[in-house]
Amino acid sequence: MAGQDLRILIVGAGPAGLRAAELLAAAGCAPTLVDEAPRIGGQIYRQPPRVPGFARTAKELYGVGADRAKDLFVAFDRIRHKIDYRPSSLVHDLIDNRAIIASEGKSAEFAFDALILATGAMDRIAPTPGWTLPGVYSLGGAQIALKHQGCTIGSKVAFVGTGPLLLLTAYQYARAGVVPEVIVLPSRRLSFLAGSLSMLGTPAAAARGLRWLFGLRGRGVPILFGHRLERVLGDGQVAGIAVKNAAGKLREFACDAVALGYGLQSETQLADLAGLKFGFNAAQRQWLPESDAFGRAAGRQDVYLAGDGSGILGADAAEARGRLAAYALLSDRQIETGGYKPEEDIAIVSRWSRLQAALRRAFALPGDFYAQVPDHALLCRCESVQAGDYRGIAGLMGARELNRAKAYSRLGMGRCQGRLCGHAAAEILAGTLGVSLDSVGRLRCQPPVKPVTVGTVAERSS
Amino acid sequence: MNGPRLQRVADMDRQLIEIHIDGWQLSAMVGDTILVAMLTQRGLLRQKQEGEAAGAGFCLMGACQDCWVWLEDGRRVRACTTYVEPGLRIRTTWPDKIFAS
After folding, report:
1. I need a labelling partner for A254 at 20 to 30 A (CA). Which of A87, A93, A122, A298 fits?
2. What is the DSSP track for A323-379?
3. Hey, which residues 15-44 in chain B have their CB within 8 Å of chain A?
4. CATH of the domain at A132
5. Quick check: helix, strand or coil at residue A234?
6. Is A69 helix (H, G, I), strand (E, B) or coil?
7. Which chain A residues touch B81 with a CB distance below 8 Å?
């Protein structure tokens, strides 16, 4: 089959999906690129709406990532007329080789010969008493408010969690004039130092992190390693946080907003609906769809994986992984890849894999982190399941696996479909049973992957 | 309790439009999401009621579904991914109309 007749569907217009589309277009294909957002870029290069008055430059929006963002946008402009780009559209189900795409209140079917999943990642959340109070936002959300809308989530903001995004977003808030009240990391200072030292092989990344850290310190922001969020204070909305160190000493900080995020997790729902083979990734502590180094998915000949949706390696690696997936797709079908050589991208991916390992060491959670979640903390906000109730289900009813526990507790049945609570639930279930995380399995995805109205499912556009 | 939650720090030179929340007229900026238009002027998107906790959103990326609000025509929308339009009429509680009709 010639390239132009091949029906290729790419899900996600972040760095991975865009680079895949670019290579496919260069090879003469006309892929369909479906993305939930109204503009390209993914969450990392999220753009403000195309409206007069959004005037910030790429440098102001993306900082050190500005050149990469601009390069990506230019690459997209070049291929825009060659591809079928569908913004504000959601692939909400996959049935065999058909994708069901919702857009403007209607659903359309798309039959594909090949599918590239570049579904990205979202914050990993851990529960704490008070985390559902109005004013607590996900860390990614805190950054999106700034990038996409020119807003901060409050005027006195506390940042709680782990990962480079925590320091980056806090730094961006400080630059925007909202200097964080405090930064709280459960990671121990020693593991942070050890992880940072092992990043000396990638000085640019290490320098970036140091710039955020010293930028915050220089503005007098308290950065508390080895502290956990004990509770979010406030009656009806956020008024402050209480944090505790390893010795049990409590401290309180007043604030009107909290940004919360313990690293990232891959969005794997569509990979699950595609029936792909999953394997447990011990470093990321998540079940992930398996693939070879080029993104060829295990379990299907016509599905390819790219970017953070199949393991968190970050935006720069995602671009490389997008090209690699497109290359695999083309070469599997004997289509000329326009002189593209994969060696450089393979090297980029392995470099970021090493860096990711160092970051995991730097931002490691203490071993008893989930065991310390108190019973009265709300674990599942959709279905109002407390951590203690969930532990009780594990103990009393013999639920030794997440889907069984879901049937007993409703955790994972709510409208977020376990995106916010699923990881913490797995950790708590495994911890209660005294078994390893992989042995409690993973929540099965049910279509639609996000809520759509019955009308949207029923109303078919041609 | 009902003071503004979000704070505008950039891109404020935009055209103003009028929207309605529970019948009250409010100004918003073109390009605002419903969430931003509301929470830069008040503390909550949704009032506490039967089957619904009070809410101000959480993930801001269309994943958690915690920012649903209602439009007067009965539609329910995600405030973080829906943009304001002139004359948009938003409700912070279940619209009675959809049950009355």
Report:
1. A122
2. HHHHHHHHHHTT---TT--SHHHHHHHHHHHHHHHHHHHHTPPPTTTTTTS-TTSEE
3. 15, 29-33, 36, 40, 43-44
4. 3.50.50.60
5. coil
6. helix
7. 36
Band of pLDDT at residue A462, cut at 50, 70 and 90: low
- Rounded Cα gap, residues A456 and A92, in angstroms: 11
Tokens matching residue A12: 């996600």
Residue of B nearest to A52 (CA): B14
ipTM score of the complex? 0.94
- Of A242, A262, A282, the residue that ends a domain is A262
Residue in A362, A386, A392 with CA at minimum distance from that of residue A374: A386
Which of chain A's residues have a Cβ under 8 Å away from the Cβ of B65? 382, 414-416, 450-451
Residues in chain B: 101
Q: Say which CATH topology domain B16-95 has.
A: Ubiquitin-like (UB roll) (3.10.20)
Contact B43 A52 (CB under 8 A): no
Largest CA distance in chain B: 43
Domain carrying residue A332? 3-122+265-338
Vertex A355 angle, CA A352 and A359, to 5°? 130
pLDDT for the residue numbered A298: 96
Mean of pLDDT over chain A: 95
